[in-house]
Amino acid sequence: MQALLTETFLTALLFGAVTAGVPLLLAGLGEQISEKAGVLNIGIEGMMLFGAYCGFVAAYYTGSFWLGFLVGGLGGVAVALLMALFCIRLGMNQIVIGISLTLGAEGLTALLHHFQFSQSYPRLDAAPPRPIPLLVDIPVIGPGLFQHNALVYLALIAVAVVSWMFRHTYIGLNLEAAGQKPAALDTAGISVDRTRTGAVLATGFLAGVGGAYMANVGAGLFVPFMTGGAGFISIVLAMLARGRPLWVLLGALMFGVSLALTTAFQVAGVNIPTDVVQMLPFAMVMLVLVIFARHSGLPPALGLPYVRGQR
Amino acid sequence: MTSGVEASTPASPARPPAGATARLILFGVLRTLLPILLALLVGAFILLLLDADPLAYYGYVLRRGLLQPSGLQETITRAAPLLLIAAGLIIAFRAGIWNLGADGQFLLAAVITAALAPELVGTLGRYPTIAVCLVVAALVGAAWSLIPAFLKARFGVNEIITTLMMSFLGTSFANVLIKIPFKDAATTVPQTETLAVADRLPRLGDTTINSGVILAVIAVLLVHLLMTRTAFGLKLQIVGANPRAAVHAGLSVAKLTYATFALSAGFVGLAGAVDILGVWGNVRNDWNPAYGMLVIPIVFLARFHGVAVIGFVLFFAALQIGGESAARRVGVPTFYVLLLVALLLMFLALVEYLDHRWRERTKA
Predict the structure, then answer these.
(1) Contact B178, B190 (CB under 8 A)
(2) Contact A240, B162 (CB under 8 A)
(3) Would you state the torsion angle of the CA atoms of residues A289, A290, A294, A300, taken in this order, to the nearest 10 degrees?
């Protein structure tokens, strides 16, 4: 146990927790926007995965990490467009479509990967870190928290922006109305469908960027099925955060720690089967749900398509 | 709370006038075949884009999965676990419960069966061992759904998320079991001890098909009768269609929720046992056939109908068996089947939507 408290272990744990937590944070924020507007976005796993693939391809061929994040976001938006078309425009079952989008993204990206990269498994160079002056010199915490890719700090700013949007703008109010009482929003002369479509597209972008970060910065390469349930975990994060972005951040860090334990243990030379460590985040979700289940909150109109005049 | 209400109540139109019956049947066939054709067509385009020959691929899958005797036997064998999972999902979906955790329930039951069977067979003999394993597997599956059932019954927590999480958890847990407590000491790559072929489920005549498929067909038919012909099934369907109305009718929604989860996951557990006792004999490290996700669209295609689902399961089993072999011969990996399933599910929803719109218009 002595080895667990060394500086290298703690630094690796913190660094890994942030790296693993950022995709969850972005996707969780996105999911929160969707859920607020009354769309249960089960397809978010597919949006992350497709974003990861598109982001990797863009970064691999252009060599630009920023272009990778942008294209990853657009990949997420592409899947989100299908979700918006089928579930919001046409009012089809959100769960069936969500599952099929996730399965489709899994199949398509694995297939494309097979034909493009399965011979060579190309890797990207390590992402350039953007250390924050002064803070980075703090022992343990400095290299663990303040020496990340610039996107990490942008993700933190996104928490503040989404929080401000929910509290202080009409967009936030409209989103809330679309989830709580869509008919009221409609009566006020604002299109429920358009509000929800915007929310789903924003989710797609954030989830796609999160996926691209996972592939390009976290792993350095694309592997089929690499999101491994991160999208579903982000749904739980959003559910338990009850519309408060700061709680998504806290939750994402917590799950980031449990995901980072695998690598940190390896650094410390502790030999635990990876399968045991892989169980941690999911076991934690269930534990959190059992303890806090009565406090999880979802909007009443969640999952239901809006049809004018129908009760 | 469940947004699946719309999909989970099977269409039950008023009795049509005699002349319209033929047209209704025609529409039923069309509603079913159209999504399949569209999915195969779009899939063919994707194969073309990837520089593969769709006709060669589909032709190969058809020959290998259905037309060759050995392939057909493999297809029927594969149908057994798929049918048992379908039986479990039909119960859940009809009761408005989205059990999406079949993969974890299946795998854990399979691993426990694989560990138990070689231990028991020495003392109990072949048939008692099989019987004990089937019961234990069903219990293991049901146990793995207990937490989602509790969270749903007590706090109304969305079971889609909880069953999925338990599925990921179960998949990793199964691997831990294979690597540590149940590892066969005689092998280097982690796997459980192998059950001798002579101790597995008996085969049908001279074929390679094992009797698991008979069990599966009986199970799915029983489930169909249970859901459509008994008071218990009716109660479950009421809970699925409208939980509030069920409370007003004096039904104990919590108890029925537990029962639904236990039955559904129990059948999925049986599927795990049948696949191990009939086909594999052991579980290897990282083995996860992910049948659960495949069966979901099949059950939707069959509109939760226990007889119709048999045909669709055979179709998909052929697709899978053919696809697995095509991965080696034609060079199109099995991921393609996953893509087909997704396309199928999407087109199914689209055709359903158009059909719904058409009905609305003719009513008005």
Answers:
(1) yes
(2) no
(3) 40
C-alpha–C-alpha distance, residues B64 and B58, integer Å: 10
Other C-beta atoms closer than 10 Å to the C-beta of B206 total 6
> Could you tell me the pLDDT band of residue A92, with boundaries at 50, 70 and 90?
confident
- CA–CA separation, A55 vs A50, rounded Å? 8
Contact A282 B169 (CB under 8 A): yes
On whether any CB of chain B is under 8 Å from the CB of A91, the answer is: yes
Q: Which two tokens stand for residue A208?
A: 């796609």
- In chain B, what residues touch A96 (CB-CB under 8 Å)? 7, 300, 345, 348-349
pLDDT tens digits, one per residue of A224-246 = 888 888 898 898 888 888 788 99
Closest-CA distance, B71 to chain A, in angstroms, reads 24
Inter-chain contact B341–A103, Cβ cutoff 8 Å? yes
Q: Model's pTM, two decimal places?
A: 0.87
The mean pLDDT value of chain A amounts to: 85
Token pair, residue A242, equals 């009850």
Token output for B9: 């109540």
Q: What is the 3-state secondary structure (H, E, C) of B33-76?
A: HHHHHHHHHHHHHHHHHCCCCHHHHHHHHHHHHHHCHHHHHHHH
CB-CB neighbors (< 8 A) of B3 in chain A: 40, 93-95, 302-304
Q: For the purposes of burial, counting CB atoms within 10 Å of the CB of B73, is it exposed (0-12), middle (13-18) or buried (19 or more)?
A: middle
- CA nearest B145 in A: which residue? A286
Structure tokens at B133: 């394993």
State yes or no: pLDDT of B181 exceeds 80: yes
**ipTM of this complex prediction, to 2 decimal places:** 0.84
Tell me the C-alpha to C-alpha distance, in Å, between residue A246 and each of A18, A158, B141: 15, 10, 37
Residue from B154, B346, B348 to probe the interface with A (highest A Cβ count within 10 Å): B346
**Within a 10 A sphere around the Cβ of A148, how many other Cβ atoms?**
21
Determine the angle formed by the axes of helices A7-36 and A192-213, rounding to 10 degrees: 160
CA distances from A59 to A64, A128, B25 (A): 5, 13, 53
Alpha-carbon span B95 to A123, nearest angstrom: 47
Number of residues assigned to chain A: 311
